[in-house]
Predict the structure.
Amino acid sequence: MKSANLLEAALAAEFIGYPVVVKPSGQAGSVGVIRVDRAEELPAGFEFATEGASLWGGESIDVLVEEYLDGEEISVECVTHHGVTTPVAVTRKQLAFAPYFEEVGHTVDGADLLLRRVGPVAQAAIAALGITTGIQHVEMRLTATGPRIIEVNGRIGGDLIGKLVLLATGIDLPRAAADLALGIQPDLTPTRQQAAAVALLYPEVSGTVVERGIDPEFAKASDWLEQTSWILSPGEQVTLPPEGDVDVARVGLLVVTAPDADQAEARIQAARDHITITVTPTA
């Protein structure tokens, strides 16, 4: 429910029932999103969401109060052409910093059988919205009563999800988007079947980045390490949630490939063991 002030948010939360999720209506990247478990926590939660709504010239200052859905968070990556939607991959998400919803990692497995279950749900949501062309990033939670829609986004998923889909399946979502813009039927034929994962790298504390790097010998010997990138440099400030958002909380990222999702997770951990991130804590 959309709420313009705290009173409307309180009425919406009582109607829905706690816990609820409070978030900006016009933001991205989980900015300003928080779970509120009790009525006495709502004023602080509403203020947090309102502040998030104003960041980066947000599209709206309105705040949404939604039912909290308990379960694994995923997204379904879809392509729609002439009203026909093709679900091409499932992204399984890793979250941290509760009660906030910071996304710290994503995994795509080209052989994930979950796609058969959640693909039709995504197709139905896209059809209900009247979408006839484009790329869709459909976020869901797998609850005890089945898959539940969180958002339908008319874009490629962030945090390199498009790259993960390419590495895991061979399907090129940016190319598909270009084809759609030209009125061309995109080629959505999978050409590989493996897993790919991205881990967003956060320090243990907020402060000044002193050092960040990966063991060069390990990186050279690991042909499955597709990418290591640094977002912040030594001397820059890193600020963890809730004070910091995705632009200032992450020091870097790494991308791996593997035969399946379990081995991708193991390789992410192996890479983490060879990464150094040193931060001087904020006073």
